[in-house]
Amino acid sequence: MPITPTKKIWMDGTLVDWDDAKVHVLSFTLHYGMGAFEGIRAYKTPNGVAIFRLREHMERLLRSCKILMIDVPYTLDDLCEAAKEVVRVNDLPEGCYLRPIVYLGYGEMGVNPIGAPVNTAIAAWPWGAYLGDHATSGVRMKISSWARHAPGAMPTASKTIGGYVNASLAKAEAIRAGYDEAIMLGPDGKVSECTGENLFIVRDGHLVSPPPSDAGALRGITQSSIVKIANDLGHEVSFEVLRRDDLYVADEAFLTGTAAEVVPLESVDDRVIGDGKPGPITSEIMTTYHQAIRGERPQYEDWLTRI
Predict the structure, then answer these.
(1) Which of 43, 61, 132, 173 maximizes the CB count within 10 A of its CB?
(2) Taking a C-beta distance cutoff of 8 angstroms, is the pair 244, 238 a contact?
(3) What are phi and psi of 302, to 5 degrees?
(4) Using 50, 70 and 90 to split pLDDT, how confident is the model at 266?
(5) Which CATH topology does 8-125 take?
(6) Residue 78's pLDDT is what?
(7) CATH superfamily of the 133-293 domain
(8) What digits encode the pLDDT tens for the residues 70-111?
């Protein structure tokens, strides 16, 4: 989905014009992928625009950087205030997507990151449904031939910039084959996650998701939100190792992520999930989640940062 330019981008403590938010071609991250990022959404609510789980996202950004041994020159509060400022200055009353990024800038050439300047930026722009307008009715998924990184080869607990080459290859493979999204297996052949989303199945009335520490999946903030919502609705959730054939025979299945939100699965590898339509538990969770992010569920008000 094309990016719609807005007015300002926050770069290293200063708001700069969109067209002036430039990075040198010899920046370390461009060459070696060292850096971390986040994806955050803000939504229109009855009481104005609110950013969904802002603090948790910025905490994860800082944790990612700690894993990568990048010293971010801003505190958690600094980053949260900067994100709010970006939404305000760009006048986005219908909500938006935010992209905070920490990257290593122009310095010496070579794979040693020590001493490279640390740069931080936050952009925001209006963005629709990540997986298309049909995402509410169900998406077609393909098991990728590309395996998810082994935790010993890439720090899978970090949202690392270079790590998403792996996801991009899987995504392109799925799209070229006529599917909407890819599911990635871990090095052991067990289900890990999608290219940018966590995965849930419904089996015998219970929700199951792969355990992040075992599957190499990133711990999702939307994933944790869904666990809370599901528990509040009276549904049991467990983290269990899943095989690809567990997906084929699931009663229901859906994926979760900040960009994608909550999206039901129509099929996996051309095996229809259930009757190919969003199941009752999936539908209930989707409805509750969309109410929560838009400020229509008071019990989840603490997930919202008002602008």
Answers:
(1) 61
(2) no
(3) -70, -5
(4) very high
(5) D-amino Acid Aminotransferase; Chain A, domain 1 (3.30.470)
(6) 98
(7) D-amino Acid Aminotransferase, subunit A, domain 2 (3.20.10.10)
(8) 999 999 999 999 999 999 999 999 999 999 999 999 988 999
**Amino acid letter, 195:** T
CB-based contact 229:239 (threshold 8 Å) = no
- Global pTM value: 0.96
Given the residues 8, 84, 142, 159, the one annotated as active site: 159
Average pLDDT for 189-214: 94
CB 106 within 8 A of CB 26: yes
Q: Is 159 designated active site?
A: yes
Q: Where are the domains of the chain?
A: 8-125, 133-293
Token pair, residue 142, equals 């393909």
Joined together, the tokens standing for residue 298 give 């008071």
- What's the token pair of residue 299? 């019990």
d(CA 201, CA 249): 10
CA distance 177 to 8: 38
